[in-house]
Every structure is written in C-alpha cells, then in structure tokens.
Amino acid sequence: MDVFQxxxxxxxxxxxxxxxxxxxxxxxxxxxxxxPGRSTLIGVPHLADISVFQELIAQLxxxxxxxxxxxxxxxATGRVGEPLLTIDAxxxxxxxxxxxxxxxxxxxxCILGPLLARCGRVEVSMPGGCAIxxxxxxxxxxxxxxxxxQIHLKSGYVIAEAPKGLKGxxxxxxxxxxxxxxxxxxxxxxxxxxxxxxxxxxxxxxPEITDLANCLNAMGARVSGIGSxxxxxxxxxxxHPVQYRVIPDRIEAGTFMVAAAITGGQVHVGHCRLxxxxxxxxxxxxxxxxxxxxxxxxxxxxxxxxxxxDITTQPYPGFxxxxxxxxxxxxxxxxxxxIVVEKIFPDRFMHVAELNRMAANLRKEGxxxxxxxxxxxxxxxxxASDLRASAALVLAGMAAEGITTINRVYHIDRGYERIExxxxxxxxxxxxxxGGTV
Length: 438
Ligand code: EPU
Fold this sequence. Notes:
This protein is an alpha/beta fold. Helix content is 29%, strand content 25%.
C-alpha cells in the first residue's frame, strides 16, 4: 500500500491543467450502454474508479478500449493528454452488476437505469456502507418503479424488470437531503427509452448531470430543462452511438485552487469552467484569495493571512460537499473562527481527527465543525480515509512544517490522476513510497 511523504511548507507556483471529470465520466460511460454500437468518449481520466467501471462494463459483454498512443502521459503543464475511451455496446450478454465490483465503487449502481431500459431486466448488487456515511439508493428505485419497473431485493441484489418496457411518468425525486445526483442520472437514462413523457421534479442540477443530459441528446434523446430542477424527457425508440467530450473536473479544479491558497502561492489552473464553480470562487474571495479568470481557466493567488468564513454544503449551485474537506484544511490556517456545516453527508468528517493530529483546532458538533484557525500546521503521520479527506491531508501536508506521512493513498488515486507528480511540478515536495500502515 503506497504512502506519501510530504515535505512542507512549500509555496506553489506555475500552471496546471485540470483533467476530465470523474463524476461526469462515470454516468456517461453508463449511458453508452443505451445505444448498440461503438461510442467514443474524450477526456475520461485515468483513475482507479474509472478502471473499476471499465471492468464492470466489460463483464456485461461490452468491450472497452483505451487509446494507447501517449494518452495518460502528462504534458508540460501536467495535463494528462486527451485520452480516448471506446465502449462497444453492440450486445449485452449479462446485465448484472456483481457484488465484487459494486463493493469497490458504489457509482456502479448507475448501470441500473440504462440496462433496465435497454434489456428489460437488470441485477445489481446493493451498494454497501461507505466511509462518508449512509448512502441509500431508495430514490433511484422509487424513480424506476414510477417508470413501471418491478423491483425486488434478493440475496443482496436489486432485481429490476420491465419486460414490456418503461412508461413515462411524473416523478418527484427529492429526498431528505435534497436532490440526488446519480438517482437523477439513473431515472433520466431509463426515461430516454420509455414510452411517452417523463418529468423529473427536484432533479439534481449538478454540471455532471447537465453533461450527461447533453450527451444523451447527442445520442438522439429528447431531454429538455437541462440544468434546472425540472427535467422533461420525451422517450424515443432508440439511441445511437456517439463521440462525446466530458467536462473538466470542477472538484479537481477546486482542489488545485485550494492548493494555491493554502501554500500562499500563485497557480494558473487551466481547463476549468469557473461558471460551474461560483460558490467555490465566492468563498475563496471572501477569505482574501484572489481568483481571476484567465484564458480557459483562472489564476489563483494566496495571501499571507486568510480571513475566516462560514461554509454550508448544498446541492449545486451551492457549495459542493466534495470540496468540504479541502476547504476545512484551508480554513484551519485562517485568522479566526469558521463554521463548516455538512448538509449532504452529515457524517463526512473523517478528516477532522487527522487534521487535528497536524495541530489544527477543529471541533465537531453534530453535522458541523467549528474551525479555530491556527498560525501553522505541524507535520504528522496521518491516515487517508476517503477520496476527498485524503486530498485535504495532502493540502495540509504542503502547508505544514516538517514531513507529513499519509498512509492509504489508494483513496486519492480513485479520484486524482498522479496528484503528486502534478503538484510537484508546481513546487510541492511529495514522494510516493511503497509500504505503510495497513
Ligand atoms: N440520498 C438518499 N436516497 C437516495 C440517494 C441519495 O437519501 O436514493 C441522499 C444521500 O444519502 C445524500 C444525498 O441524498 O445525503 C445526496 O446524495 P447523491 O445521491 O446526490 O450522491 P451520489 O449521487 O451517490 C454523487 C457523487 C459524490 C458526491 C455526491 C453529492 C458520483 C460518482 N458521486 O454521489 O461524489 O459527493 O453526488 O454531490 O457522482 C466524490 O467524488 O468524492 C463523491 C463522493
């Protein structure tokens, strides 16, 4: 198991390009299953989670190929090529998402909608627990049932059937924590091939859902209201294969922005869409970090002393839960008290105890954390627990005095491609070593 050794403090400077979005790529790869034939996706990042999904799609009977020539090799600015991924969904032999794959990545559940629509039957292992808390799929199932699917659970598997096809319906998809991203993806994908019109109220508005809807329309679907909480889907008889480029990863972009801020550096973050990140830019500017739009991205410049600010995570366009941990690391070094409230995953605070090991002063109160800023963080051995918590520890390690050791960095490889090489090109001092505490 790999370990990071991070020497700090450093001041980052230079240019980094953001890769394609993981959370847009995963449902879009699932959408390819709706159309018989070969589809090509541009910009799907090389990540552990994407490899797991490739494995899942391949075992359905759909060969998946990665372009070999140079894709995956970072260019001068750290951007990792324009990788091509081809999925041949000509036939689907086995519409099953087995436990062994789903347990590695719960996003596997987004094959439910497309396989049900295309094959009339699908079996997917129920996703289990997750480091960021309880993650039910009741809303996915509710939406699919309203489209006419018969669903039952057997031996830990969801079995969904619609032998006579799906039928459009009006569906309210909001839950106790607001909209659901992958639930919206599943129901929208299923509805593209349903008979008649489907309306999804309280649909997720995340840019990744917009990207999926645009991709579906490029395949011949009829989705409107894209980007709003009311999606209308007029079913069509079939979809066709597509060539489609996924959007840049706004969470990776935000992580690099915080990297510039926490090290008091100046970084040009390229290939990022600031329009998708207004809540993040707003919080950064509020604490004194300069964010200026520049070319296809922005220049982020830190300041000597940060102001505190309160943050509440919310569905898009609110502040994203996937940047909560990284911002907590940043606010830990601000000049005063901040309050961070988690409204999407109330237990997503695994990083709190680890950051406190690095001399942060964080106090958890229910689904909130009171962050009392300290003058400096101090290096310590810490443990990565989930993807974004690990990113927060890397950020803290670059700002802390001394050598921080991060165990279990496989968590970060799930969502950030060669993060240490790309940060090192900006002036970080991170080495990856084999071994470490299990
Ligand atoms: N929820 C329900 N019932 C459901 C589905 C969700 O109650 O059937 C609740 C969840 O428990 C949570 C809230 O609704 O409280 C929102 O969850 P959502 O369904 O939107 O999460 P998701 O679709 O499973 C995606 C991302 C997550 C990201 C969340 C929220 C992917 C592959 N995953 O998950 O990304 O945190 O949306 O924005 O797109 C990450 O990349 O690190 C990550 C965890």
